[in-house]
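From the pipeline queue, job 12 of 40. The input is one protein chain; the requested action is below.

Action: predict structure.
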Amino acid sequence: MDIDDLIDAVIGREGGYSNHPADRGGPTRWGVTERVARTHGYSGDMRHFPRDQAAAVYRRLYWLRPAYDRVASRAPAIAAELFDTGVNMGPAVATGFLQRALNALNRGAGDFADVVADGQVGPRTLAALDGFLKVRGRAGERVLLKAIEALQGERYVRLAETRPANEAFLYGWLANRVWTASAGEAG
Protein backbone atom coordinates (compact mmCIF):
# COMPACT_ATOMS: atom_id res chain seq x y z
CA MET A 1 0.00 0.00 0.00
CA ASP A 2 1.20 3.52 -0.69
CA ILE A 3 0.38 6.53 1.45
CA ASP A 4 -2.69 7.43 -0.63
CA ASP A 5 -4.11 3.95 0.00
CA LEU A 6 -3.31 4.21 3.70
CA ILE A 7 -5.02 7.61 3.94
CA ASP A 8 -8.08 6.29 2.10
CA ALA A 9 -8.25 3.32 4.49
CA VAL A 10 -8.00 5.55 7.58
CA ILE A 11 -10.65 7.93 6.27
CA GLY A 12 -12.85 4.94 5.49
CA ARG A 13 -12.48 3.59 9.03
CA GLU A 14 -12.92 6.97 10.66
CA GLY A 15 -16.04 7.78 8.66
CA GLY A 16 -17.75 11.14 8.41
CA TYR A 17 -18.77 13.51 11.17
CA SER A 18 -18.78 12.43 14.82
CA ASN A 19 -19.23 14.17 18.13
CA HIS A 20 -19.45 11.31 20.63
CA PRO A 21 -19.96 12.56 24.21
CA ALA A 22 -17.30 10.18 25.57
CA ASP A 23 -14.69 11.26 22.99
CA ARG A 24 -12.37 13.86 24.45
CA GLY A 25 -11.45 14.89 20.90
CA GLY A 26 -14.80 16.61 20.44
CA PRO A 27 -16.24 17.14 16.96
CA THR A 28 -14.37 15.27 14.23
CA ARG A 29 -14.79 14.62 10.55
CA TRP A 30 -12.82 12.01 8.65
CA GLY A 31 -11.06 11.35 11.99
CA VAL A 32 -9.58 14.86 12.18
CA THR A 33 -10.44 16.68 15.40
CA GLU A 34 -11.71 20.22 15.39
CA ARG A 35 -8.55 21.38 17.21
CA VAL A 36 -6.30 19.91 14.51
CA ALA A 37 -8.48 21.30 11.72
CA ARG A 38 -8.34 24.78 13.29
CA THR A 39 -4.57 24.54 13.68
CA HIS A 40 -4.39 23.89 9.94
CA GLY A 41 -6.53 26.87 8.96
CA TYR A 42 -10.04 25.41 8.76
CA SER A 43 -12.60 27.72 10.38
CA GLY A 44 -15.91 26.23 9.27
CA ASP A 45 -18.36 23.81 10.84
CA MET A 46 -16.69 20.41 11.28
CA ARG A 47 -19.69 18.77 9.61
CA HIS A 48 -18.35 20.28 6.37
CA PHE A 49 -14.60 19.73 6.81
CA PRO A 50 -13.42 18.72 3.31
CA ARG A 51 -12.02 15.26 2.73
CA ASP A 52 -9.07 16.61 0.74
CA GLN A 53 -8.03 18.78 3.71
CA ALA A 54 -8.25 15.73 5.97
CA ALA A 55 -6.02 13.81 3.54
CA ALA A 56 -3.49 16.66 3.55
CA VAL A 57 -3.45 16.67 7.37
CA TYR A 58 -2.89 12.92 7.46
CA ARG A 59 -0.04 13.09 4.93
CA ARG A 60 1.69 16.00 6.65
CA LEU A 61 1.19 15.17 10.35
CA TYR A 62 1.09 11.38 10.36
CA TRP A 63 3.37 10.36 7.46
CA LEU A 64 5.94 12.99 6.57
CA ARG A 65 6.52 14.75 9.92
CA PRO A 66 7.16 11.52 11.87
CA ALA A 67 9.36 10.22 8.97
CA TYR A 68 7.26 7.13 8.32
CA ASP A 69 8.09 7.55 4.66
CA ARG A 70 11.68 6.69 5.64
CA VAL A 71 10.46 3.61 7.50
CA ALA A 72 8.35 2.59 4.47
CA SER A 73 11.42 2.35 2.24
CA ARG A 74 12.76 -0.31 4.62
CA ALA A 75 9.67 -2.01 6.05
CA PRO A 76 6.38 -1.06 4.37
CA ALA A 77 4.14 -3.07 6.71
CA ILE A 78 5.76 -1.44 9.76
CA ALA A 79 5.30 2.02 8.25
CA ALA A 80 1.63 1.28 7.52
CA GLU A 81 1.08 0.19 11.12
CA LEU A 82 2.92 3.21 12.52
CA PHE A 83 0.81 5.52 10.36
CA ASP A 84 -2.47 3.96 11.48
CA THR A 85 -1.44 3.82 15.14
CA GLY A 86 -0.09 7.36 14.93
CA VAL A 87 -3.42 8.63 13.65
CA ASN A 88 -5.22 7.10 16.62
CA MET A 89 -2.66 7.48 19.44
CA GLY A 90 -0.22 10.05 18.13
CA PRO A 91 2.99 9.46 16.17
CA ALA A 92 5.20 9.69 19.27
CA VAL A 93 3.31 6.80 20.87
CA ALA A 94 3.44 4.73 17.68
CA THR A 95 7.16 5.38 17.24
CA GLY A 96 7.73 4.56 20.90
CA PHE A 97 6.10 1.16 20.29
CA LEU A 98 8.55 0.56 17.41
CA GLN A 99 11.52 1.58 19.53
CA ARG A 100 10.47 -0.53 22.51
CA ALA A 101 9.87 -3.55 20.28
CA LEU A 102 13.25 -3.15 18.56
CA ASN A 103 14.98 -2.94 21.94
CA ALA A 104 13.18 -6.03 23.22
CA LEU A 105 14.00 -8.01 20.07
CA ASN A 106 17.72 -7.21 19.83
CA ARG A 107 18.89 -10.02 22.13
CA GLY A 108 20.58 -7.89 24.76
CA ALA A 109 21.91 -5.39 22.22
CA GLY A 110 23.76 -8.24 20.54
CA ASP A 111 22.19 -7.69 17.12
CA PHE A 112 22.23 -3.87 17.12
CA ALA A 113 22.42 -1.06 19.66
CA ASP A 114 19.45 -0.16 21.84
CA VAL A 115 17.68 3.07 20.96
CA VAL A 116 16.19 5.64 23.29
CA ALA A 117 12.41 5.30 23.21
CA ASP A 118 11.91 9.01 22.59
CA GLY A 119 9.05 8.70 20.08
CA GLN A 120 11.13 10.15 17.23
CA VAL A 121 12.25 8.36 14.06
CA GLY A 122 15.84 9.45 13.63
CA PRO A 123 19.10 7.97 12.42
CA ARG A 124 19.48 5.63 15.43
CA THR A 125 15.96 4.23 15.14
CA LEU A 126 16.42 3.70 11.41
CA ALA A 127 19.81 2.03 12.04
CA ALA A 128 18.20 -0.27 14.61
CA LEU A 129 15.43 -1.14 12.15
CA ASP A 130 18.03 -1.81 9.46
CA GLY A 131 19.99 -4.00 11.90
CA PHE A 132 16.90 -5.93 12.89
CA LEU A 133 15.89 -6.55 9.26
CA LYS A 134 19.45 -7.57 8.35
CA VAL A 135 19.45 -10.22 11.09
CA ARG A 136 15.80 -11.32 10.89
CA GLY A 137 14.83 -10.63 7.26
CA ARG A 138 11.30 -10.22 5.95
CA ALA A 139 9.96 -12.81 8.39
CA GLY A 140 11.27 -10.56 11.14
CA GLU A 141 9.16 -7.70 9.85
CA ARG A 142 6.03 -9.76 10.57
CA VAL A 143 7.27 -10.51 14.11
CA LEU A 144 8.11 -6.86 14.72
CA LEU A 145 4.63 -5.94 13.49
CA LYS A 146 3.08 -8.36 15.99
CA ALA A 147 5.12 -6.83 18.81
CA ILE A 148 3.96 -3.31 17.89
CA GLU A 149 0.35 -4.50 17.69
CA ALA A 150 0.65 -6.21 21.09
CA LEU A 151 1.83 -2.95 22.66
CA GLN A 152 -0.99 -1.09 20.94
CA GLY A 153 -3.63 -3.55 22.14
CA GLU A 154 -2.33 -3.40 25.70
CA ARG A 155 -2.55 0.39 25.65
CA TYR A 156 -6.16 0.30 24.47
CA VAL A 157 -7.13 -2.06 27.28
CA ARG A 158 -5.30 0.13 29.80
CA LEU A 159 -7.12 3.23 28.47
CA ALA A 160 -10.46 1.51 29.02
CA GLU A 161 -9.44 0.31 32.48
CA THR A 162 -8.31 3.74 33.64
CA ARG A 163 -11.15 5.74 32.07
CA PRO A 164 -14.43 3.79 31.98
CA ALA A 165 -15.87 6.15 29.32
CA ASN A 166 -13.29 4.64 26.93
CA GLU A 167 -15.02 1.28 27.22
CA ALA A 168 -17.43 2.68 24.62
CA PHE A 169 -14.55 2.59 22.12
CA LEU A 170 -12.51 -0.45 23.17
CA TYR A 171 -14.25 -3.03 20.99
CA GLY A 172 -13.91 -0.85 17.90
CA TRP A 173 -10.29 -0.03 18.67
CA LEU A 174 -9.41 -3.69 18.97
CA ALA A 175 -11.48 -4.70 15.95
CA ASN A 176 -10.34 -1.90 13.64
CA ARG A 177 -6.98 -0.65 14.89
CA VAL A 178 -5.00 -3.65 16.10
CA TRP A 179 -4.58 -5.04 12.62
CA THR A 180 -2.13 -6.71 10.36
CA ALA A 181 -1.02 -3.86 8.14
CA SER A 182 0.69 -6.15 5.66
CA ALA A 183 -2.58 -7.96 5.07
CA GLY A 184 -4.60 -4.76 5.21
CA GLU A 185 -7.21 -6.34 7.47
CA ALA A 186 -8.00 -6.86 11.10
CA GLY A 187 -5.56 -9.26 12.72
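Job complete. The helical segments are 3-14, 34-39, 51-64, 68-72, 76-89, 91-104, 123-162, 167-176.
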